[in-house]
From TrEMBL:
InterPro entries the UniProt entry points to: Big_2, Ig-like_fold, Invasin/intimin_cell_adhesion, PKD_dom_sf, Secre_tail
SMART domains, A to Z: BID_2
Source organism, top-level taxon: Bacteria
Protein name: BIG2 domain-containing protein
Any Pfam family: Big_2
Organism field: Flavipsychrobacter stenotrophus
Ranges where the BIG2 domain occurs: 86-155, 163-232, 239-309
Length: 739
């Protein structure tokens, strides 16, 4: 506002509280006579030509005073006058928010003021403008400037923001590994974390998982404009309990109690298979059956159950013991190996002849002698008992043989002859020229494959061999011969045969003189058959000397027979251009039956490949007589009628063929609805039959050498059929009615 100031023409004083400035008088007051005053500008002055005007400028104005003197030159002076008002508090600068417990600094355009807070319980401020947040809220900060003209104020609103508050965590402080739980917080919006994720992890919702046993600190962080604050929570992750190892015997005998133990208390015992072993609450195991079983000791806590296991075998005393010696038998001086086995054994021992002993299952082989032969005992043992087995060992020595015993020379006719040699168990062999003698495995000599009545020499050998070597001995033997006879063995009545004996000088004897007579001198006889029948009757004995024995008699030699009967066997008909086999034989038992053959009409049939068996070839239709003569010693003859048939051939006498009516045919039943019989006269052999229907269509054709035929008409339709029969030089016709 405007203020009035009186300007005195005196020395200005600066102590005027209102800002009145006096124009200094200067030296002119002492030396010059002032005649006039002039102020410029005159604005705001009470007068412009007086010495002390009153100035009330609206704005700061510089006034110039010009003084005139009658004695001095004019002079001037200036003065600036500023109008004064109430003081200004200026402007406050700085943050408008402070966190509780924190400070901010405010500044002012003037530095002479003082600071104050309207609510010190919310925020305080010191003389330097430093604001301290006390509690959440809003306070007004005032800056006061005072002067002679009054006091000025300026204000500034400051908000005290709350510091971040993490609240508090609650929930379980223990957790099982592998399990989860949920922690809760009194303040929302925070972030969860774990100090050791190897022990425990936590998600954004506070779900906590136990990873492994140990300790971890769970943090809950809350952040706002004032920063981040944390709440902490210590947790412990635990696991199932620890279980000590089971101690005790790993073997239980059948029906016997074995006690196991475990250092961890309060556990429970169980068996994996109570059919093999049971266990009681104190760890007592009883074997039930042979086998393997697992015994378990279980200990539990809130985090689960831990187990200790123990494998056990339930055994019985050893069984199925066996003992073997190899090789066995063996030679003295050889190495012997013993092997034993037994079910369920844990230790082994052997004992045997010649103070032998060993404490292993399969001892190292050892050299044997004659004293090593005998029984070896194998014993198998375990915690539940023992079992034994034996092996008998035979020690073999190199063999020896004695001399061969037996009679030599001997008569061939007295064979078999037996030879002996020791020890038993050997084998016999013989070296005989032309294999005339043979010897059996028991030393019996008989005639060999090449044996005959002549004297024979041979060497027999007896050998015995075993695994340790062999031994043999030999003996030369001589078999004296016996008589033989030569000559035919058959004679016809009235015939003669010559019989010879060998060696010469033997003796003939005869029997059955009723049927034959003998003449001649030794060594041969001529024998004549007297009548049919008879029995063997000629014998011969060799002379008894160093090469032959008179026994046995040789014979009988001659069989006297009658002339006998001849026979032909085989088919009675043959188709033209075909063959049939015929066989000729005689009643001469043992006589040759080669024989001879002939045909009575080779224009109808011929004989080919003559012999005991021949073939007859049909040339043309007709009948023929086939003749056979057999018996080499006493020939006999027989015949057989053969019919040659051919439906497509003309008979040999076709020009004289006779056609017969159906009266000569017997057809029955006629009419027929099934089987039909056609019969031609006895003594006539049909060669072909043809049956046609009334149109001439052939429905049945049959070729055979018979005089009676059967046909089945059940499959033919009703009507009249014609039948034609060809029988050599005869032809028959007839009708058949099918109803």
């Amino acid at each position: 506002m405007a203020q009035t100031v009186t300007i005195n023409s005196v020395t200005p004083s600066s102590s005027d509280p209102c800002g009145t400035d006096l124009i200094p008088s200067g030296s002119i007051y002492n030396f010059c006579t002032i005649t006039g005053y002039s102020w410029l500008p005159t604005t705001g002055l009470s007068c412009g030509a007086c010495a002390n005007p009153t100035a009330t400028p609206a704005t700061t104005t510089t006034y110039t005073l010009t003084m005139s003197s009658s004695t001095c030159a004019s002079t001037f002076a200036t003065i600036t006058i500023s109008p004064l008002g109430a003081p200004s508090a200026g402007t406050i600068y700085g943050p408008s928010t402070v966190c509780s417990g924190a400070t901010i600094s405010l500044t002012e355009t003037y530095s002479t003021g003082t600071w104050s807070s309207s609510t010190p319980t919310v925020a305080t401020i010191d003389g330097s403008g430093v604001v301290y947040g006390v509690s959440v809220g809003t306070t007004t900060i005032t800056y006061t400037v005072s002067g002679s003209c009054g006091t000025a104020f300026t204000t500034y609103s400051v908000n005290v923001a709350p510091a971040a508050n993490p609240g508090s965590i609650s929930g379980s402080t223990t957790l099982c590994a592998g399990a989860s739980t949920t922690l809760s917080e009194t303040v929302s919006g925070g972030t969860w974390s774990s100090s050791n994720t190897g022990v425990a992890t936590i998600d954004a919702s506070g779900n906590l998982w136990g990873v492994s046993t140990g300790s971890a600190t769970i943090s809950y962080a809350v952040t706002n404009s004032c920063g981040t604050a944390y709440a902490f929570y210590n947790i412990t992750v635990t696991g199932p309990p620890s279980v000590a190892s089971i101690t005790g015997s790993a073997t239980a005998c059948l029906g016997t109690l074995t006690t196991l133990s475990d250092a961890t208390p309060s556990g429970a015992w169980s068996s994996s298979n109570t059919a093999i072993a049971t266990v009681d609450a104190s760890g007592g195991v009883i074997g039930v059956t042979i086998g393997s079983v697992t015994i378990t000791y279980a200990v539990s806590n809130s985090c689960g159950t831990s187990y200790a296991t123990y494998g056990m075998s339930v055994i019985a005393a050893p069984s199925s013991a066996s003992a073997a010696a190899s090789p066995n038998p063996l030679c003295s001086g050889s190495s012997l190996s013993l092997t034993g086995s037994a079910a369920g054994a844990t230790s082994y021992s052997w004992s045997g002849p010649n103070s032998y002993s060993a404490a292993v299952q399969n001892p190292t082989s050892f050299t044997v002698n004659a004293l090593s032969a005998g029984v070896y005992t194998f014993t198998a043992t375990n915690a539940c008992g023992s079992a034994s087995a034996t092996a008998t060992v035979t020690v073999v020595t190199t063999p020896t043989v004695s001399a061969i015993s037996g009679t030599t020379p001997f008569c061939k006719g007295a064979m078999p002859v037996t030879f002996t040699c020791g020890p038993t168990g050997g084998s016999w062999s013989i070296a005989s020229p032309s294999n005339r003698l043979t010897i059996s495995s028991s030393g019996v000599v008989t005639a060999g494959v090449g044996g005959n009545a002549s004297p024979s020499s041979a060497v027999i050998t007896y050998s015995i061999t075993n695994m340790c070597g062999s031994a043999s001995t030999t003996l030369s033997i001589y078999a004296k011969g016996f008589a033989t006879m030569g000559g035919t063995g058959y004679v016809c009545v009235g015939g003669q045969i010559t019989i010879s004996g060998s060696p010469s000088g033997g003796t003939w004897s005869y029997a059955d003189a009723t049927h034959f007579t003998a003449s001649g001198a030794v060594p041969s006889n001529v024998v004549t058959a007297v009548s049919t029948g008879g029995a063997p009757g000629v014998y011969y004995a060799a002379p008894d000397n160093s090469d032959y024995c008179s026994t046995p008699l040789v014979g009988p030699r001659t069989l006297f027979i009658s002339n006998g009967t001849a026979y032909i066997s085989g088919p009675s008909s043959v188709q033209a251009t075909n063959n049939i086999p015929l066989t000729g034989s005689t009643s001469l038992g043992g006589a040759s039956n080669t024989g001879t053959w002939s045909s009575s009409n080779t224009a109808i049939a011929t004989v080919i490949t003559p012999g005991a068996t021949t073939s007859v070839y049909g040339v043309s239709v007709g009948s023929v007589t086939i003749m056979y003569t057999g018996g080499a010693a006493c020939p006999v003859t027989t015949t057989k009628n053969i019919t040659v048939v051919c439906p497509t051939c003309k008979p040999a006498r076709e020009s004289g063929a006779i056609t017969k009516s159906d009266d000569d045919l017997q057809i029955y039943p006629n009419p027929t609805n099934g089987e039909l019989t056609v019969q031609i006269p006895d003594g006539v052999i049909a060669t072909a039959i043809t049956i046609t229907d009334v149109t001439g269509k052939v429905i049945i054709t049959k070729i055979d050498a018979e005089n009676e035929f059967k046909f089945d008409f059940s499959r033919y339709p009703t009507g009249v059929y014609l039948i034609k029969v060809d029988a050599g030089d005869r032809k028959y016709t007839g009708k058949i009615i099918r109803n």
